[in-house]
């Protein structure tokens, strides 16, 4: 069985980064809500407690009883996690005089402590907290300090329990990955044997056991997630998998035809369904983003239901859901950021069970698995594309004419990125049709037409993203081509917002 590290999520924005860093150590980990520790899982090797937006002394702070975990597993508390351990054992946590945020340096490190093995003095760490530990219990020992934070890290005497008030998971903590490795490998004893090959082997075995001889229908989107899920399932159950690719009318230009051709090389059993009229009809007059997403999500379910009933004895619906989909759909604090059409369960009427073989992978991990499966690079390297398609890139209501305008503009932008050798340098790119019109001049005539925004970002996992610094010459060429070639557009802008605070998609 695959050994794992459990990360207890107390609601920090960087919890997912902890998971990514652990995965980068070739060690499997799972992020679970702070109060959902898998006590009966024999594969757990260690526990990490994340940060939190709360203070440990807040009435509504997330709290757990660590007595059943402590002593059974090594524990590392990060930020709030460190403060929680100290506070619940009699230490003092108080508001800092000034919020401790940004770069700091370890001015002292206790020699010989395993957590700081190979960590040099003055190593840069990243602080991000409004509270600080001002005193620790007698059996806690300070093992690292900064010039402003005396208790930057501690260990409980004679126990495998550590706490750090900085964030080793973020990029700005220059030796943070080494600290995590010291905990995961040296303390917890993880073998670092989790890889795309091992994931494929274990997942195919699990799918065979889970599905048996049952028939499965999978919703293909044309993107890397559903494509990798399809190839994995095909490897596990072969002819018992039927894939359905739905054209809801809001795909990219000519995408339905191109994707169907792509899937021929994978040996998949694919049914193409043109349901664009249905979706346009149901979306008519709808402007609210969440409502659009839910209509499209329900539409997918309806189409799958109809197609599934054409196949005898189908028992499962498979989807290419990945970790960020689940994380963004509902945070640990209960705040919905945006709903994803493939997250949240299925209507009872379908009478199908849900199979999501990629639900615990980040996007870059999905790509590595796809390459290990031998899939063609042009499928693996495709930019992410939202399930609702261009519907969430058209601000306001949806019409076939708006989709036509956006498809043409988007095609120029994406093809331009390819032609200029920029496509693979960008994580995700697309055009947004804005709900505004502006005055322009074309051929000595006044125009009053639409504006579009170009969006291109760099990222590794979609949890954070920065706007792509594309060459001015390229931007000028694309802008000129869109305005000259796309009827209905007379203004092009570029979105230079990063995530956070802005999401990658506008809706």
SSE diagram, text form:
Layout: E1 4-9, H1 15-24, E2 29-33, E3 44-49, E4 75-78, H2 80-87, E5 92-109, E6 124-135, E7 140-146, E8 153-156, E9 161-164, H3 176-187, H4 196-211, E10 215-220, H5 224-237, E11 241-247, H6 255-264, E12 270-274, H7 276-283, H8 289-308, E13 314-318, H9 323-329, E14 353-355, H10 363-372, H11 377-380, H12 400-419, E15 428-442, E16 445-458, E17 466-467, H13 472-485, E18 489-494
Parallel strand pairs: 1-2, 1-3, 3-4, 4-9, 10-11, 10-13, 11-12, 13-14, 16-18
Antiparallel strand pairs: 5-6, 5-7, 7-8, 8-9, 15-16, 16-17
Could you describe the 3D structure shown?
The protein has 507 residues and is of the alpha/beta class. 30% of the residues lie in helices and 25% in strands. It has 13 helices and 18 strands. The chain has helices at 15-24, 80-87, 176-187, 196-211, 224-237, 255-264, 276-283, 289-308, 323-329, 363-372, 377-380, 400-419, 472-485, and strands at 4-9, 29-33, 44-49, 75-78, 92-109, 124-135, 140-146, 153-156, 161-164, 215-220, 241-247, 270-274, 314-318, 353-355, 428-442, 445-458, 466-467, 489-494. The strands form 3 sheets. The protein has a 9-stranded mixed beta sheet, with helices on both faces. A 5-stranded parallel beta sheet has the order 12-11-10-13-14, sandwiched between helices. Strands 15, 16, 17 and 18 form a 4-stranded mixed beta sheet that branches. Helix 9 (323-329) links the parallel strand 13 and strand 14. The protein is globular and about 75 Å long. The protein starts with a strand and ends in a 13-residue tail after the last strand. Mean pLDDT is 89; it is low at 333-345.
